[in-house]
Write a structure and sequence with these properties.
The complex is a heterodimer of chains A (241) and B (163). Chain A has a domain of 154 residues. In chain A, strand 2 and strand 3 form a beta hairpin. With 241 residues, chain A is of the alpha/beta class. In chain A, helix 2 runs antiparallel to helix 3. Helix content of chain A is 23%, strand content 17%. Chain A has a 4-stranded mixed beta sheet, covered by helices on one side. A 4-stranded mixed beta sheet of chain A has the order 4-7-8-5. Chain B has 163 residues and is mostly helical. Helices cover 75% and strands 0% of the residues of chain B. The radius of gyration of chain B is 17 Å and the shape is globular. Classes of the chains: A alpha/beta (241), B mainly alpha (163). At the A-B interface, helix 1 and helix 2 of A face helix 1, helix 2, helix 4, helix 5 and helix 6 of B.
Chain lengths: 241, 163
């Protein structure tokens, strides 16, 4: 006798509901954190003309209690380890090691650059990360490691395309919750912006870095903040090694 | 806490679990679903004056969560193609469940899973589901019917094969 023989539609749906209801799920995160995150979104909507840096600062101040960046995830769908934090804590940025050895950086909020910098360095990428308007002055541009400024739009060099294979090959410019905007050096969006552009994704190929080179991720520029990855010389003051 | 904040907090506490279970039913991964639902509630608070007047605010959250997930996935998929990226094996979801049911659910098209999730976890009627998904009521009935039929057929087959 089959358990499901003769079941009505309602019975089948009830069986599905009961089965899914048995899945252990995390309880709700702190509502204050959710509201802070929402306030940051609302605030950004209300100040469209504000400069990127100011928007970043405002967003960070309003969301100060909201988000703690995640460290590594084994993959975009990796199970969290036991005792994982509530999901809301995953939102600021995520560093993911990809199967091909590349490292994917997903930035949803311009927060905790020092934490992101430490995470990248722990993954073996000499890195300098600044989300303020001022780049680290100790960093020296590696030859061919900075998008050319002329002619506009920014053009990627061969080195940039190797080190940052994804954004320079057509990721669309994604408005950042903090006001930053990722500018692919090719300057040509390959796809229309998604309806809910909540993150910027940068992929780094560490094997493409020259031995004396690291990466610099920085938000800078007038008007909208520009989040631009570039290649720099390694140094203790810049990339930590 | 203002009245508006208290109202949202009450909504959040009451709606978190059903919304999360509905999204889990569609995306398969509890972890992914938690991220998406948290983001959707943040968006709900950002637009609370609109959402609080919505005829089905929980459905708004679920739909927003699923849209958010689709947006995230469009970007992630550029990084690492995975088959069944959004689906977690039933065995990963916990013990004591009817794994065959979940396996069958995983095989349904996403739209059928959405319709079923909105029906069973948010208890929405056909017209409301149709409005939420932007499709005709008849299409909702078709998805629901096909989904249930597929599940019943698969379950029958699975049980027969399994003895």
């Amino acid at each position: 006798m089959n358990t499901y023989d003769g079941m009505s539609d309602t019975d089948v749906l009830s069986a599905v509901r009961d089965s899914l209801s048995g899945i252990p799920l995390a309880g709700p995160p702190d509502v204050e954190a959710i509201m802070a995150r929402g306030r940051a979104r609302r605030h950004r909507r209300l100040i469209p003309g504000v400069t990127g840096t100011a928007a970043v600062a405002a967003g960070a101040a309003l969301a100060v209690t909201a988000l703690v960046p995640a460290s590594h995830q084994a993959s975009p769908v990796a199970s969290h380890p036991a005792g994982r934090q509530p999901a809301v804590r995953l939102a600021a940025w995520t560093v993911t090691k990809l199967a091909d050895g590349n490292i994917s950086v997903t930035i949803r909020e311009l927060k905790d650059p020092a934490g992101l910098q430490s995470t990248l360095r722990a993954d073996g990428v000499p890195a300098s990360v600044t989300f303020a308007s001022q780049q680290n002055p100790e960093c020296r541009a590696y030859p061919g490691g900075t998008p050319s400024q002329a002619p506009q739009p920014l053009q990627a060099t061969a080195l940039l395309k190797r080190v940052f294979p994804k954004p320079y090959n057509g990721l669309p410019p994604l408005p950042h919750p903090g006001g930053a905007r990722m500018v692919p050096a090719t300057g040509r969006p390959a796809a229309p912006p998604s309806p809910s552009p909540d993150a910027t994704v940068i992929v780094i190929d560490p094997s493409a870095l020259p031995g004396n080179a690291g990466v610099q991720l920085g938000a800078s520029g007038d008007g909208d903040a520009i989040l631009t990855p570039r290649v720099v010389y390694v140094s203790p003051q810049c990339t930590g090694s | 806490m203002s009245n508006e904040q208290a109202e949202f907090a009450d909504f959040f506490q009451a709606s978190w679990e059903p919304c999360l279970r509905a999204v889990v039913a569609v995306v398969g991964s509890p972890q992914l679903a938690e991220d998406q639902v948290a983001e959707a509630f943040a968006k709900a608070w950002a637009s609370w004056r609109k959402v609080r007047r919505h005829p089905a605010p929980k459905a708004w959250v679920v739909r927003t969560a699923l849209n958010t997930g689709a947006s995230w996935w469009r970007r992630t998929s550029r990084e690492m193609p995975l088959a069944d990226h959004d689906l977690t094996a039933p065995g990963d979801l916990g013990d004591g469940l009817d794994a065959s049911l979940l396996t069958v659910l995983r095989r349904l098209p996403a739209r059928q899973r959405e319709v079923i999730a909105l029906r069973i976890f948010l208890d929405l009627d056909t017209d409301t589901i149709a409005r939420q998904l932007g499709i005709e009521a008849g299409t909702v009935r078709m998805h629901l019917s096909r989904g249930v039929t597929a599940m019943r057929r698969e379950l029958t087959t699975t049980n027969n094969h399994g003895g």
